[in-house]
Amino acid sequence: MSSRSQETEDLVDVDLYDDGSFPQFRFGQAPAGLATRRQLRAMGLSPGGQEPAAQLIWRRGQRMAWLYRIDLAKPKRVPTLAQERALDRAMAARQSCPVCRRRYRYCLPLKTLGSCLECHDGTPADPCDYTTSPDHTLAA
Q1: Which of 15, 83, 127, 135 is most buried by a 10 A CB count?
Q2: C-alpha of 133 from chain center
Q3: Are 40 and 73 in contact (CB under 8 A)?
Q4: 4: part of which helix (H) or strand (E)?
Q5: In the Cβ-directed half-sphere of 90, how many Cα atoms lie within 13 Å?
Q6: How many C-beta neighbours within 10 Å does residue 40 have?
Q7: Could you tell me what percent of the chain has a pLDDT over 90?
Q8: What is the pLDDT of residues 49-76, one digit of tens each?
Q9: Do 70 and 86 share a structural domain?
Q10: Chain-centroid distance, C-alpha 87
C-alpha cells in the first residue's frame, strides 16, 4: 500500500465548530418554532431539504423523532393529475381481485393467495369493502 493511500484512509471528516451536542427535548417540552415531519405535513409543509434542528425523545429514550424549523419549511408539493392517475392505477392493481374483478378498499394478498379471500377460500366479503364499478375515484 502506498503512503499516499494510507494518508487518505486515515483522514476523518471533522467539523471543528460542532461540539457534539444535539438539542434534545422531552415530549411536550420542545420550543415553539419546531415541528416533527407529521406536524409539518398537517400544516401543509415539508422539511424542504433542511437538516433536523433538534430531537424529540419520549418513552424513556426508546422513541425519537426529528424536529425541523417551521420557518425554513417549504409548502408541500401538490401532485399533478397525471401523477394522481398513476397512483390510482398502482393502487387498483394492488386492490383488485383478478378472479372476481372487485376492487377492495384495502390491499389484497395477491402475492401469497393470488386473489381475494372470498375467491380463495370462500370467506364472505362485506359489500361495504369493495366496489364492482370499473370507474374508480382517484386514490390520491
Answers
A1: 83
A2: 30
A3: yes
A4: helix 3-10
A5: 7
A6: 21
A7: 56
A8: 999 999 999 888 789 999 999 999 999 9
A9: no
A10: 15
Cα gap 132→97, rounded to integer Å? 10
Name which of 39, 38, 35 is nearest 56 in CA terms.
35
Task: Tell me the CA distances in angstroms from 38 to 33, 84, 129, 138, one per residue in order.
Answer: 14, 21, 28, 23
Nearest one of 70, 122, 76, 113 to 94, comparing CA atoms? 113
**Global pTM value:** 0.56
The 8-class DSSP code of residue 105 comes to S
Q: Which domain holds residue 46?
A: 21-75
Q: How far apart are CA 35 and CA 67, in angstroms?
A: 5
CA distance from start to end of the chain? 56
The residue among 59 and 134 whose pLDDT is bigger is: 59
- Considering the domain architecture, whether residues 63 and 35 belong to the same structural domain is answered as yes
* Same domain? 87 vs 44: no
